[in-house]
Structures are given as C-alpha cells and as structure tokens.
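Internal ticket - ligand job 496, iron/sulfur cluster:
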Amino acid sequence: MTESKTTEKIRCDACPVMCYIADGKAGACDRYANHGGDLIRLDPLTIIQTGDQKLVPFLGDQGDQDTWDGDIIKGDRPFITAVGAGTTYPDYKPAPFIASQKIDGIDMVTVVTEGIFSYCGVKVKIDTDRHIGHERDVVRVDGEPIGHVTTSEYGSKMLSLGGVEHLTGGTKKEGRVTCDALLKLCNREAVTMLIGEEGHETEIIVEAGQPPIINGIRENLMRVGCGSATIGMFPMQWIGHVDDVVVVDDHITGVLSEHETGKQLNVPPTGIKILGRRSTSGRYFQVAEPGLGWGGTNIDDPLKILGPFNPKIAWEGLRLLMVSTTGEQYAYYELDASLAPQPKPIPAQLKASADLIAENCEPSVCSVLFMGGAGGSLRAGVTENPVRLTHSVKSALTNVTCGGAETYVWPGGGITVMVDVMDMPTQSFGYVPTPALVAPIEFTLRVSDYKALGGHVDHIVSIKEIKQDTARKVQKNPRVRDPLAISNYRWSKEAG
Ligand code: SF4
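stdout (structure tokens):
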C-alpha cells in the first residue's frame, strides 16, 4: 500500500474512491484509517491454522502429561486468507501478499487479496414450502429493488440478489441499499425484505444459517419431498390403517389410492375427487393458489381441494388422512352416509405417520452464497498476463478459495466463483462506496506454475516473513476442504 501525505490528511489508494483521511479518522469504507500519518488496515489479517489434528501425548510420558493442555493444535500450516489483507489499486500492482511455503515437499504460493467486486451478488436458498413470491417478483429493501425471486428448487425458494444492474445500474440510493444488504447477508446478518407488489407483499427476514421468518412466523421444517414423493415414501405406515391418503402440496399433491404406489400395494379405488390439474396417476398440480397454508398452498382447510366422492365407488365410513408435506398439518376424516368427509380424532397410528414425515424433514435454513467475478484488478494483481490465471484455474493448476473456503468456479469464460458464506471466517466481507463489495480471494498454486503464468515472482515472500503476531488466528472450519491440500490439484492425482 502506498500513501500520499498532505499536511493533515493522507490519501488512501486502495480503491477508486481515493479518500483523503485525517489523522485518527477512517476512510469512507471504515476499512482503512490514518493512524498518526500511517495508513493502516483496520481489520486484522486472518490466518487459518490448517493442521487441525489434535496432538495426543504418548501414554506414560509423564513429562508431557504434566505440561499437556489437552488442546494443542498442529498449526504448522498456516493459510493466509485475504480477510483483512487489503486491496491494491489500480490493477497492475501486485496483490498485498504473495506468500510461499512448502506443502508436502512442494513449493507452493498463495496470492492473497481482498477483491473489489463490482460484479457480484448473492444467491439465497430458503428452505420452505411457503409462498414468498412469484418467480420474477422484485425483492425490495428500504423500498429499493435489490433483486428478484428466481426458479424454485426442491423444497426451497430461491432469490437472486445484487448484481451490477442494482449496484450501479439504478439510482444512487438503489446501489447503496443493495450494497448494504449484500454486505449484511454475506457477513451473516439478518436482512428484512419485502417481496411482491404493494398490498400483497410478503415480508421475509433472511439470515445465513438461520430459518427464514416469513410474515412474522419463523419457519420450522423443510418439506420431506413433494406430495407425490411423500406418498411413495411412507405407504407402509398407512396400509391397513386408512383407506386413502392425500398429501397436500402446492406443486404436486399426491393421492395414495390413485398413485402407482397404491396400485402396487393393492390399495383399492376410493372414488376421491381432487380439484386440480391431473398430471399422472395420483399426482395433481394447482390444487390451490400458493400461500402460507398447507404444503405451500393458500388453504387452511384441506377439504377445499376435494370434490364430491364418486357414489359408485366410495362408501360410508371410508377413512381418509390428509397431511401436508412437512407433516406439521394433518387431519383425519370418515365419510358419513351422504359420503361427506366428517372430521374425527386421528388414530394413534396415523398421528405417528404424520410425526414420521415431520421427523424426516430437515430443519429449514437460509443459505447465502456469494457469487462474484474476478476481474481486472484481481487477476492483474496475480500475474502480468491475466488470462493465463484464468486458464490455470480452469486447468485445475490453481485452487481458488475465498477466506480459505472452497469455491465453485463456474465453467466457461472468466473466473466466476460461488462460495457459501457459512464456510468463511466471520466478518469476511467489506464494501467500498463505489458501490461494490469487498470479498477475500486467494489463489494457491505451485511456485513453478506461478512462474509459468507470468506471476509477480519478485514479490513472493516466505510465509514466515509475514507479520503474524497481530493477526486473527482461526481454526480450519471442519466442513471445509483444506485449502493447502495438494489433493486440490489435478497434478497430484496424475502423480498418484
Ligand atoms: S473507500 Fe476505503 S479503500 Fe477506498 S479509498 Fe476510501 S478508505 Fe481507501
């Protein structure tokens, strides 16, 4: 980092804003400050101790036992993350840290920088059946559009938030609000959003790693499957205890007696009539409107999806279970003499089947995946020949991590990465007021490969030379692959 001193202020050149910062003050992003005329990065550099095996003393080695603290970590392979590393600007300057160390006898280098991502956003997966908005509905925060509802996945609603169109393509306020919402989501903070048109909005509070709160109600379970799948999974709980089962689902409502499952298990027809669009045997679409009721529909009374029973087939006393895809809602009926379903107390065996459905549901959670493209400054900070870095990543010679967490690198051109923010150290993200998100990114590869792609080899320093006493040291996240493992590379498999 370079700085230009004026009489009172120093200039930060870590991003295009180029703040002049007075002594004792921080710049516009709160990441850099003027400390007695020195420009300092306010957050500590974060180092991951990747050797996570606990050392165990030999039995009988009393000397060791006396001094044993029981929790010594073999932290002999520190991984310098880009969290707190700082940025370089403009693009041609080498990354803040280009650190080398031997890994399993091989000279490796990690190029470390906090990237300024003008092209970035988050994909949010919300495990719920409940209707949060239609596909393409706008998602707003503080009245500003920050993204939209995108294609639902199995048991989950999906949001696509941020992106350059919202960060820079709208009004100044839209960009600022979008950046702030992305920053909070990536740093695992809660964000309140409104989805849909005025007067029909759904309020949803999203926080990474936590269940969503939809219109003030905390979601509990993620569905076990669609209605059809639920019929296929639990028939043995029902056969002999009930004559028909309907699993109410906004997407695919299942009916046991008509379903292939029921046919194979010799469940006789019951004359039931579902008010929906029949897809295939025992599978119905559009039985109701989407909503916050049973199985993601807008109904609280499941009988609303039934038409009259066929009098030629149905019989008085026919037993019917209706249950939602999470097993949280259930009702038991018996047909009266006029073949109308009458609610009855649910028999214990059928209650147990609803409980089993619920037991097989996973907890509902919001997942936030940061997605960004490594552009000019990032790649030029690694090599004078940026496209070679892209080729190296695509050839599995360079491992890309964000705060030490493994990333998914999208196929095709560029280095477009996606990472689960829960895999990263806390407070990994920052912002600059351009507006853009600041996210850590590291490129690790063999020194020989780094030389071959035209890397800034003159700036390589041994990891031992990097001042670590003021660094924040965190243990490797056990969910995450070791960012220094040589098994991350294609060549290690070819050699093996
Ligand atoms: S916004 Fe932050 S990084 Fe950019 S110049 Fe100002 S203090 Fe430096």
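Auto-summary: The CA atoms of residues 441 and 462 lie 19 Å apart. Residues 227-359 form one domain.
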